[in-house]
Amino acid sequence: MDVSSYFLPELGVLIDPLTPPEGVDVLEELGPPREILLTNRHHWRECGELTERFGVRVRAPRVGMHEFAEGDPVDPYDFGEELAGGAIVVHEVGGICPDEAALHIPSLNALAVADGVIQYGGLRFVPDNLMDDPEDTKRALKEAYARLADELEFEHLLTAHGEPVVGGARDALRAFATA
C-alpha cells in the first residue's frame, strides 16, 4: 500500500514523514522542518533520519506512547491540543486504534488523517484483515468522520495512504461516513 506524507513549509511541520524522493536536502531548502507530527503511533516511518538531520522532536498521540522506546525523540500530545503554535488542532478518531487522530489545519483548509480512511480512486477503508473487528471498526470510524465533517471546516483531506483529496474533501468525507 502506497503511503503519503506531507510537509507544510509555512508551518515548518512534517506529517507522517517520509524522506522526499529528491532527498532530504529539499526539506532544508523549503523550511527546514521545526516539528514532526504523527497521526498515529504506527507512522514513525523515517522519523529517525529526519530528527537526526534537523534536530527536531516528534509529537505523537499520548495513548500510543507505549510504542516508543525510552530515549526516542518523541513527546506526547493529547486530543484537543493545539500544536505548531496553535496552527493545528488534534481531534480524536479512534476506531481502528486508540491513538488514531486527525489534525485540523485551518490556515490550509485541510484535515490530515491516519489509517481510518485511505484514498485510492475514492475514499475507502483499509482492508478488513488490518482491523481487529472490521464491522465495529468501520462503524466507529464512520461515526468519527461524520462528526469531524459536521464540526470542522476543510476543503482538503491529507490521507496517510493514497493521494490527498484536493477540494471538496469535507463533502467527500461526509458522503463516505454516511454511506
Strand order of the largest sheet: 6-7-8-9-12-13
Level-2 CATH architecture: 4-Layer Sandwich
* CATH topology grouping: Metallo-beta-lactamase, Chain A
| Amount of helix | 10-25%
- Whole-angstrom Rg: 15 Å
Write the element-wise H/E pattern from the N-terminal end onward. EEHEHEEEEEEEEHEEH
Strand tally is 13
Overview of this protein structure:
With 179 residues, the chain is of the alpha/beta class. It has a single domain (6-178), classed as Metallo-beta-lactamase, Chain A, CATH 3.60.15. It is built from 4 helices and 13 strands. It has helices spanning 25-30, 47-54, 134-151, 169-178; strands at residues 6-8, 13-15, 35-37, 58-61, 74-77, 82-83, 88-92, 101-105, 110-113, 118-119, 123-124, 156-158, 165-166. Strands 6-7-8-9-12-13 form a 6-stranded mixed sheet, with helices on one face. A hairpin with a 4-residue loop joins β6 (82-83) and β7 (88-92). α3 (134-151) runs antiparallel to α4 (169-178). The longest helix has 18 residues, at 134-151. It is globular and about 45 Å long. The chain starts with 5 loop residues before the first strand and ends with a helix. The mean pLDDT is 96.
What are its keywords?
alpha/beta; 13 strands; globular; 179 residues; Metallo-beta-lactamase, Chain A; 6-stranded mixed β-sheet
Which helices and strands appear, and what pairs or packs with what?
Blueprint: E1 6-8, E2 13-15, H1 25-30, E3 35-37, H2 47-54, E4 58-61, E5 74-77, E6 82-83, E7 88-92, E8 101-105, E9 110-113, E10 118-119, E11 123-124, H3 134-151, E12 156-158, E13 165-166, H4 169-178
Parallel strand pairs: 2-3, 3-4, 4-5, 9-12
Antiparallel strand pairs: 1-2, 6-7, 7-8, 8-9, 10-11, 12-13
Helix pairs in contact: 3-4
